[in-house]
Amino acid sequence: MEQKPLKNEYVYIKNKERIVNLQSLILQKLSNYFLEEGFKWILPVITSKVTDPLWPDPGASIEKRLEFEIYGEKVRITQSMIVHKIIAVSLFTDKIFTFSPNLRIEKPERKNTGKHLYEFTQLDFEVRYAKSQDIISFVERILKKLFIDLMENGIYRKEMECIKEKWETYDSMDIESIYGREWEQILANKIECPVWIKNIPREFYDYQDPLTGKWDNYDLYLPGIGEVLSGSKREILYDRIIEKMVRDRINKENFMVLLDLSKNGELKDCAGAGIGIERLLAWIAGEKNVANVQLFPRIPGVVDYL
Ligand code: ASN
Description:
Elements: H1 6-14, H2 17-36, E1 40-41, E2 47-48, E3 62-64, E4 67-70, E5 73-77, H3 82-91, E6 95-103, E7 105-106, E8 119-128, H4 132-152, E9 169-171, H5 172-179, H6 183-190, E10 195-198, E11 217-222, E12 226-233, H7 238-247, H8 256-263, E13 270-276, H9 277-285
Parallel strand pairs: 1-6, 9-10
Antiparallel strand pairs: 2-5, 3-7, 4-5, 6-8, 8-13, 10-11, 11-12, 12-13
Bound molecules: asparagine (ASN).
């Protein structure tokens, strides 16, 4: 396993002041917008019997899923809080957000992409009775507001001019037919303003129209960086969830509460998304490599001293 010389570690950390200042400002602004819009701030879970399977997702490349035993029970490390979010908005409040550490042990081949980390933070949120378009409009509104606020704080990048533009929307099938299967990076290098990509085949919890087969989901792509957000309207009907779990060979035992609520009609229609904080920060800071915005980098294949 590769490690940096010990001394480099101190130099790296000392040079991070600019990024940490920017990060503080961005986190302050974003959490304020969510609170002002009536969201409740919940704290993350790290270990749980249930987490995001991250399968099947064309963008995922997970080398290992972290599972271990505590108190005689098997638990998993959070890959995303998707299941907890859906349950929270179904049972007790209509809008939640959290800053959730996600551990995804990406394959070491992703070391040099500059876009992948094996630990990152998602600003993950969910809204009861929301439709996809509500989430898309909300995200566009708060990100544009963030860019305006940053400009007022003297932080300017020419990309922030995109607040004046409408952010285009494309179907992933059309994009794939133009750029091929590896469209994600090509697209990121072609765009000048953020774009929305819809209808992406992936995990069981994203809603799929049973008649057309189309997925009611959406990702936001940033120029040069790629996917910074993914989200969807959720699949809440028991038969549909089971059908998709069987199709994807997902173990039902790992989703007992979700399935039980769904069976009893207690899952509420909802939609949400998660924003990758490091990617957003990298884009705003003008950093090409997302690891450069982490104080303690988590690069696939590299385990540092800290
Ligand atoms: N946070 C994403 C969502 O809300 C899920 C994920 O990160 N895999 O859909």
